[in-house]
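Our preliminary data section would be incomplete without showing what the modeling component actually yields. Below, a chain of 189 amino acids is followed by its predicted structure, encoded as C-alpha coordinates that our downstream tools consume directly.
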Amino acid sequence: MKRTAWLLIALFASCSHSQREQEVIDALDATPMLYTLETTAEVCVESRDAKGSLRSLFGNRNILVPVEAYIKVGYDLSKVENLRVADGKAYITLPDPQIEIEGTRILSDEIVSDVSGLRDPFKASEETELAARGLTKIQNSLSRFDLIAPAEEEVRRTIRDLLRPMGLTPVFENSKVYTEEDLRRLVID
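Predicted structure:
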Protein backbone atom coordinates (compact mmCIF):
# COMPACT_ATOMS: atom_id res chain seq x y z
CA MET A 1 0.00 0.00 0.00
CA LYS A 2 2.81 2.44 0.90
CA ARG A 3 4.53 1.65 -2.37
CA THR A 4 1.36 2.53 -4.33
CA ALA A 5 1.04 5.82 -2.45
CA TRP A 6 4.64 6.76 -3.28
CA LEU A 7 4.08 5.89 -6.94
CA LEU A 8 0.97 8.08 -7.02
CA ILE A 9 2.87 10.97 -5.38
CA ALA A 10 5.76 10.59 -7.84
CA LEU A 11 3.30 10.45 -10.76
CA PHE A 12 1.45 13.54 -9.48
CA ALA A 13 4.72 15.45 -8.99
CA SER A 14 5.91 14.66 -12.50
CA CYS A 15 2.55 15.70 -13.94
CA SER A 16 2.62 18.99 -12.07
CA HIS A 17 6.12 19.75 -13.36
CA SER A 18 5.11 19.05 -16.93
CA GLN A 19 1.93 21.07 -16.37
CA ARG A 20 4.02 24.02 -15.07
CA GLU A 21 6.34 23.68 -18.04
CA GLN A 22 3.32 23.68 -20.35
CA GLU A 23 2.04 26.85 -18.64
CA VAL A 24 5.39 28.54 -19.31
CA ILE A 25 5.40 27.30 -22.92
CA ASP A 26 1.86 28.61 -23.40
CA ALA A 27 2.84 31.99 -21.95
CA LEU A 28 5.88 32.23 -24.24
CA ASP A 29 3.88 31.09 -27.27
CA ALA A 30 1.38 33.91 -26.66
CA THR A 31 4.11 36.30 -27.86
CA PRO A 32 5.97 34.24 -30.44
CA MET A 33 8.05 36.98 -32.12
CA LEU A 34 9.32 39.60 -29.74
CA TYR A 35 11.32 42.45 -31.25
CA THR A 36 13.56 43.77 -28.51
CA LEU A 37 15.81 46.18 -30.40
CA GLU A 38 15.21 48.59 -33.24
CA THR A 39 17.96 50.86 -34.50
CA THR A 40 19.45 52.45 -37.57
CA ALA A 41 22.88 51.72 -38.95
CA GLU A 42 24.82 53.99 -41.22
CA VAL A 43 27.84 53.24 -43.40
CA CYS A 44 29.58 55.12 -46.17
CA VAL A 45 30.43 53.59 -49.52
CA GLU A 46 32.84 55.22 -51.86
CA SER A 47 33.74 54.97 -55.49
CA ARG A 48 37.07 56.36 -56.65
CA ASP A 49 38.85 56.36 -59.94
CA ALA A 50 41.93 54.21 -60.06
CA LYS A 51 45.00 56.41 -59.91
CA GLY A 52 46.89 56.49 -63.15
CA SER A 53 43.94 55.32 -65.25
CA LEU A 54 43.31 56.94 -68.61
CA ARG A 55 40.03 58.42 -67.38
CA SER A 56 41.75 60.09 -64.42
CA LEU A 57 43.68 62.23 -66.92
CA PHE A 58 40.42 64.12 -67.56
CA GLY A 59 39.91 64.87 -63.83
CA ASN A 60 38.45 63.30 -60.73
CA ARG A 61 35.26 61.28 -60.51
CA ASN A 62 34.80 60.24 -56.89
CA ILE A 63 31.75 59.87 -54.70
CA LEU A 64 31.03 59.07 -51.06
CA VAL A 65 27.50 57.77 -50.48
CA PRO A 66 26.10 57.39 -46.94
CA VAL A 67 23.67 54.49 -46.66
CA GLU A 68 21.27 54.00 -43.77
CA ALA A 69 19.41 50.82 -42.87
CA TYR A 70 16.73 50.12 -40.29
CA ILE A 71 17.60 47.05 -38.18
CA LYS A 72 15.34 45.02 -35.90
CA VAL A 73 16.45 42.22 -33.59
CA GLY A 74 13.86 39.79 -32.30
CA TYR A 75 13.43 36.47 -30.60
CA ASP A 76 10.94 33.80 -31.60
CA LEU A 77 9.84 32.73 -28.13
CA SER A 78 8.07 29.69 -29.52
CA LYS A 79 11.58 28.30 -30.14
CA VAL A 80 12.77 28.51 -26.53
CA GLU A 81 14.98 25.50 -25.90
CA ASN A 82 15.59 23.15 -22.97
CA LEU A 83 12.81 24.54 -20.80
CA ARG A 84 12.43 22.92 -17.41
CA VAL A 85 10.72 24.05 -14.23
CA ALA A 86 11.95 23.11 -10.77
CA ASP A 87 11.83 24.66 -7.31
CA GLY A 88 10.12 27.87 -8.41
CA LYS A 89 12.59 28.45 -11.23
CA ALA A 90 12.19 28.18 -14.98
CA TYR A 91 15.46 27.16 -16.65
CA ILE A 92 15.50 28.58 -20.16
CA THR A 93 17.89 28.54 -23.10
CA LEU A 94 17.05 31.43 -25.41
CA PRO A 95 16.82 30.75 -29.12
CA ASP A 96 19.14 32.56 -31.48
CA PRO A 97 17.99 36.09 -32.22
CA GLN A 98 16.74 37.01 -35.67
CA ILE A 99 18.11 40.12 -37.35
CA GLU A 100 16.04 41.93 -39.96
CA ILE A 101 17.59 44.66 -42.09
CA GLU A 102 14.91 46.81 -43.66
CA GLY A 103 14.51 50.15 -45.31
CA THR A 104 17.96 50.63 -46.81
CA ARG A 105 18.15 54.12 -48.20
CA ILE A 106 20.69 56.55 -49.55
CA LEU A 107 21.09 59.72 -47.52
CA SER A 108 20.95 61.85 -50.65
CA ASP A 109 21.49 65.19 -48.94
CA GLU A 110 24.77 63.92 -47.45
CA ILE A 111 26.38 62.58 -50.64
CA VAL A 112 29.80 64.04 -51.28
CA SER A 113 31.09 63.95 -54.84
CA ASP A 114 34.09 65.30 -56.67
CA VAL A 115 33.52 65.26 -60.42
CA SER A 116 35.57 67.46 -62.71
CA GLY A 117 33.95 69.28 -65.61
CA LEU A 118 35.31 66.89 -68.22
CA ARG A 119 33.78 63.81 -66.59
CA ASP A 120 30.19 62.54 -66.51
CA PRO A 121 28.31 63.06 -63.24
CA PHE A 122 27.19 60.00 -61.29
CA LYS A 123 23.90 58.52 -62.45
CA ALA A 124 21.10 57.43 -60.13
CA SER A 125 21.73 53.80 -61.16
CA GLU A 126 25.36 54.09 -59.98
CA GLU A 127 24.20 55.50 -56.64
CA THR A 128 21.70 52.63 -56.32
CA GLU A 129 24.49 50.13 -56.95
CA LEU A 130 26.51 51.83 -54.22
CA ALA A 131 23.51 51.53 -51.87
CA ALA A 132 23.48 47.77 -52.50
CA ARG A 133 27.17 47.68 -51.58
CA GLY A 134 26.22 49.62 -48.44
CA LEU A 135 23.73 46.91 -47.44
CA THR A 136 26.45 44.30 -47.91
CA LYS A 137 28.83 46.41 -45.84
CA ILE A 138 26.25 46.61 -43.03
CA GLN A 139 25.67 42.86 -43.14
CA ASN A 140 29.41 42.22 -42.96
CA SER A 141 29.95 44.48 -39.95
CA LEU A 142 26.94 43.78 -37.71
CA SER A 143 29.07 43.32 -34.58
CA ARG A 144 30.09 46.96 -34.89
CA PHE A 145 26.51 48.04 -34.13
CA ASP A 146 26.25 46.27 -30.72
CA LEU A 147 22.90 44.61 -31.42
CA ILE A 148 22.83 41.36 -29.46
CA ALA A 149 23.66 42.33 -25.84
CA PRO A 150 20.92 44.99 -25.47
CA ALA A 151 18.39 42.86 -27.37
CA GLU A 152 19.12 39.87 -25.15
CA GLU A 153 18.85 41.94 -21.98
CA GLU A 154 15.45 43.21 -23.10
CA VAL A 155 14.12 39.71 -23.92
CA ARG A 156 15.32 38.50 -20.53
CA ARG A 157 13.52 41.41 -18.81
CA THR A 158 10.33 40.63 -20.74
CA ILE A 159 10.46 36.93 -19.82
CA ARG A 160 11.07 37.85 -16.15
CA ASP A 161 7.98 40.07 -16.21
CA LEU A 162 6.00 37.31 -17.91
CA LEU A 163 6.96 34.61 -15.40
CA ARG A 164 6.82 36.67 -12.19
CA PRO A 165 2.97 36.46 -11.91
CA MET A 166 3.32 32.68 -12.28
CA GLY A 167 5.58 32.61 -9.20
CA LEU A 168 8.61 31.62 -11.26
CA THR A 169 12.08 33.10 -11.54
CA PRO A 170 13.77 32.55 -14.89
CA VAL A 171 17.31 31.21 -14.98
CA PHE A 172 18.90 31.77 -18.37
CA GLU A 173 21.32 29.05 -19.39
CA ASN A 174 23.79 28.55 -22.20
CA SER A 175 24.29 32.17 -23.24
CA LYS A 176 25.98 32.34 -26.60
CA VAL A 177 28.68 34.61 -27.94
CA TYR A 178 28.19 35.41 -31.62
CA THR A 179 30.96 35.90 -34.13
CA GLU A 180 30.63 38.16 -37.17
CA GLU A 181 29.89 35.06 -39.26
CA ASP A 182 27.19 33.96 -36.79
CA LEU A 183 25.55 37.39 -37.00
CA ARG A 184 25.42 37.21 -40.81
CA ARG A 185 23.76 33.79 -40.47
CA LEU A 186 21.10 35.30 -38.18
CA VAL A 187 19.97 37.84 -40.80
CA ILE A 188 16.61 36.84 -42.25
CA ASP A 189 15.33 37.98 -45.62
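The CA atoms of residues 74 and 98 lie 5 Å apart. The longest strand covers residues 61-76. Preliminary results of this kind motivate Aim 1 of the renewal.
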